[in-house]
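Journal club side-thread
Mid-discussion, someone asked how the predicted structure for our own chain would compare to the paper's figures. Pasting it here so we can look after the session.
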Amino acid sequence: MSNTVLDLIGNTPLVKAQNLVSNPRVELYFKLEGQNPGGSVKDRPAYNMIKKAMERGDITKDTKLIEATSGNTGIALAMVARLLNLDIELVMPENSTVERVQTMRAYGAKVILTDADVGIEGARDYAEERMKNGNYFMLNQFGNDDNWQAHYHSTGPEIWNDTHQKITHFVSSMGTTGTIMGTSTFLKEKNKGIKIVGVQPADEARIPGIRKWPEAYLPRIFDPKKVDRIMEVTEEEARAMTMRLAEEEAIFAGMSSGGAAAAAVRLCEELEDGVVVSIVCDRGDRYLSSNLFEK
């Protein structure tokens, strides 16, 4: 029995791919982060960033939070803030799926939609200006060490234990880069030979949740030394693999998960042997209003 839904964050399932890998000497596992109570991997850093800020006295019940988000972090922050009775304003591009906006508002958050043409960078700029000119506190997921440390203390240990310490490769899409930074830090401490693979969109590809940041917007928490290899995926690859995850593995996920899975499957076919873990960062039901699952 749990006291609150926050107690349900983490300890997500790790399931073995049944049909996507043809290499018999490689095992591919998917970590199902959509099983978190807020529906994504972002529950972990959202809770940790707010909890640590409260412990340090950076924020109180009277603090007004503001954060730019592409969706999943905003939902997670809205959930945590509601349970802790905190006021939060979330800023996101206007082309975000309606499910995401409605979910944040359902939790009681105020949602500001910025021009789609300037993307998440524009949302970040807007939130920065509001913070400078108003009584706001920004958690700043892109530069907050409590983001990646959430994964150092939970995601990494879970993967290490659930693979019985046999993991050889970890694959993750890169957005704020918190997941890959924290998990890499932990896994490399356990075994320096584990290879960390980051997934980025190919040029011109638009894959929600995966970014190739302009230099000025590169997350401060990102340390390139913690990533052994970068694999790029096209939008077509990410879309196709998202469908394959649903149809062949019964894993219903978003496009960033499809992008990571596409890279992971490609990696599996290259290896002589190994145990590969790929992050499935959310659920597909928050993309139903988009054309992602249209045939």
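Post-session note: The chain has a mean pLDDT of 94.
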